[in-house]
Amino acid sequence: MRAILVALAILLVTPPIGLTVIIAGLLGAPDGPNSIYQWGIRSWARIICRAAGAKIVLHNTERILDGPTVYVANHVSWFDVFALGAVLPRVTFVAKKELEKLPIFGQACRAAGIVFIERGNRRAAFDTYKTAADKVREGRSVVVCPEGTRGRDYHLRPFKKGPFVFAISTGAPIVPTVIHGTIGIQPKGSFRVRSGTIDIHFLEPVATAGYSYEQRAELMEVVWQRMAAELSSRYGIHTSEHPVARESDRPEKETSFL
After folding, report:
1. CA 64 to CA 205: how far, in whole Å?
2. Distance spanning both ends of the chain, measured CA to CA
């Protein structure tokens, strides 16, 4: 039943919200904390969460910063994105390129400032992060999921370095963000949707000032360890994996944009 409600919500609200955002973009409506673009992201995400019966509980909201921020989150379900979109101020996302092709949705996302990444192309991925960095310098916050794709359980998988090169280039602080409960609502690979509670934990911010391109792995490990520790202490979820992604995931040196 919940899956049907979510499907209906997406079908019914995406066209009017999407077209409103697209028209606003064509007319040059200004961006800002209370802009039509942010209204579109928040409204769309909140309606979907309500249709699913998802209750969002925020922990340590004082760590949601006023200025531009890079929120580094774990990723196990589409509802991670919906929940973050529903609660974060003046935020945009780095999303997979395939979503850009969806009618209305893709155009609306572009108008709202969503940045699409071609995950199989490292050079193109770094060009995408350059675009995202520009948005942060303009005052937006960005959500990135450095695991690269959704997992099937909550253990923290290795991170890719691109998001941390991006964060260093902006100079914006990183807020490690741990999401729990979304697998119970909709796990990866399933159309089933069940009501439940989504807990979002905002951890102590990590300053990127002082880090260089050569220290990207060091920054990544600091963030990974904090998130892994939170999952372990709060939910008893342990991981034996190393925080650094495999060698083949490393970006080519010439793709640096620092």
Report:
1. 9
2. 49
What are the angstrom distances between the C-alpha of 26 and each of 29, 30, 107, 126? 8, 11, 11, 27
Domains of the chain: 2-255 (3.40.1130)
Rounded Cα–Cα distance for residues 133 and 138 (Å): 9
Kind and range of the H or E run holding 73? strand 70-73
SS3 state at 57? strand
Say which residue the tokens 């200004």 belong to: 30
**pLDDT tier at 10 (50, 70, 90 boundaries)?**
very high
Share of the chain above pLDDT 90, in %: 69
Residue-wise pLDDT for 89-112, tens only, equals 989 898 888 888 899 999 999 999
Judged on CB neighbours under 10 Å (0-12, 13-18, 19+), 86 is buried
